[in-house]
Amino acid sequence: MPHRREAGSRSPNEIDLVVGQNIRRLRQSQHLTLQEMSAALGISHQQLQKYETGTNRLSAGMMPGVAEILGIDIADLFESAVASTSDHEADRLRMECGQVLRRTSSSETLRTMSRVLKALAPR
User: Fold this and answer.
1) What is the CATH superfamily name and number for domain 1-81?
2) Alpha carbons 110 and 115: distance in angstroms, whole number
3) Chain centroid, CA 60 distance in Å
4) Where along the chain do its domains lie?
C-alpha cells in the first residue's frame, strides 16, 4: 500500500503529500498568502510551507483549524481526485459562499440567504 511507512517512521507519506497539495490549492484559490493563513493558525509561514510541500506532516490537531480557515470539511483535505477546471471553479464558489455565510451573524439575514439559495438551487 502506498500510504504505509516503516514502524516508527514520522516521514511524510503519499497521503501527507495530497493533504499538503490540497491545502496549497485551496489557500491560493481563496487568495490567502502563506503569511495570512499561518498567522491565523498561529504558526510560521515556513511551517505552513513545509506542510504544503509535504516536507512536514500536518498533525491531527492542526487539521480542524486548517479546515475552518479554508471553509471546508476535514475530509476534503484528503481528496485526491483530479477535478476539471469547472469543478475547481464550482468548489471555489462554494467556499466563497460558505465564507460569506460564516461571517453573517444575523439570524434573520441567514434565513433570507437560505431562502434565496434554496430558490436558486436545482431540484
Assistant:
1) lambda repressor-like DNA-binding domains (1.10.260.40)
2) 9
3) 14
4) 1-81, 84-123
- The set of residues, in sequence order, having a beta carbon less than 8 Å from that of 4 and lying 6+ positions away, is 13
Place of cell 510541500: 53
Contact 68, 77 (CB under 8 A): no
Give the DSSP letter string of 75-123.
GGGG--PPPPHHHHHHHHHHHHHHHHHHH---HHHHHHHHHHHHHHS--
CA dihedral of residues 78, 84, 88, 90 (deg, nearest 10): -120
The per-residue pLDDT for range 28-65, each reduced to its tens digit, is 988 999 999 999 999 999 999 999 998 999 999 999 99
pTM: 0.61
The dihedral sign for the CA sequence 100, 101, 104, 110: positive
How many residues would you count in the chain? 123
- The model's confidence at residue 8, banded by pLDDT at 50, 70 and 90, is low
